[in-house]
Amino acid sequence: MQEVAIEGVIFFWIMLTGLGLSFVFGVLLIILHNILYRKFDRILFIRPYFTQTELALYAAWPIGLLRSIMYMTLILFPDHARKKRFKELSLPISVSRPLKIACAFCMLLLFLTALLGVAFFLYGGALYVINNA
Known about the structure:
By secondary structure, the protein is mainly alpha-helical. The chain has one domain (11-131). Helix content is 75%, strand content 0%. Helix 3 (64-76) packs across helix 5 (97-131). It is elongated.
């Protein structure tokens, strides 16, 4: 039986975990997008909050998913979102607790996927440098 290098196994598992997380994140993001755009587009996807170019760009799929991430930011971090994007928004945004938990889980998956992507490239680059030095 052939011996397997532990570095390769670690690299493989970082890659596999990142792919799995990004798949779960993508599915959850599409589900949340279909919920959030129906709830918020009428009141938030208008001219004072978005420029004319952004209204045209974010109306189409897949860039429209970024609009849903902005809505998630408004749900999870309302003070920050009101300071940056939704400055003139005065009415409070009320959402159900399960939707808020789903948005938090989606943002956590986004952060973990990005973190694993950085780890993947740093570890893979370090392995390349060490093995070719």
